[in-house]
């Protein structure tokens, strides 16, 4: 967790959970670590983790099973992708287009860069790092 950023800690925890889901570390239908386990791992208050889990539960990405903890929804990967795509198109892409215009970057340059990148696409560890630090 980056305690120096403006991004709330609970939101950073949500992003970490998203990264673990997309990387396959947490599998659909599988029990995930408890609120207390995540709090200890990240050295944060359990209420902060609970806030993150509340958001994941409201998005139907996780669900509680009485007396057993939280489990990933069977369609958790699709739900996370949907959430992140919405965020990307609503925020990140708009900011990117504005920055491209400021710098005079053409769509052809972006396509060329993307093509080169896709040949050597990043590992899941890098994706997790990008998601956590955004």
Characterise the protein shown here:
Helices cover 65% and strands 6% of the residues. The protein has 134 residues and is mostly helical. It folds into two domains: 9-72, Orthogonal Bundle (Arc Repressor Mutant, subunit A); 77-122. Strands 1-2 form a two-stranded antiparallel ribbon. Helix 1 packs across helix 3 and helix 2 (35-42) crosses helix 3. The termini are close together. The relative contact order is 0.15.
Q: What labels would you give this structure?
A:
134 residues; mainly alpha; Arc Repressor Mutant, subunit A; two-stranded antiparallel sheet; 2 strands
Strand % is 5-15%
Shape-level CATH architecture of the largest domain = Orthogonal Bundle
Q: Could you give the distance between the termini?
A: 11 Å
Instruction: State the secondary-structure class.
Output: mainly alpha
Q: What's the order of the H and E elements?
A: HHHEEHHH
Shape: elongated
Classified by CATH, the class of the largest domain is Mainly Alpha
At the fourth level of CATH, the homologous superfamily of the largest domain is Winged helix-like DNA-binding domain superfamily/Winged helix DNA-binding domain
Query: Would you count the extended β strands for me?
Result: 2
Low-confidence stretches: none
**Fraction of helical residues:** 55-70%
> Helix count, per DSSP?
6
Give, in spatial order, the strands making up the sheet with the most strands: 1-2
Q: Predict the CATH topology of the largest domain.
A: Arc Repressor Mutant, subunit A
Overall pLDDT confidence:
88
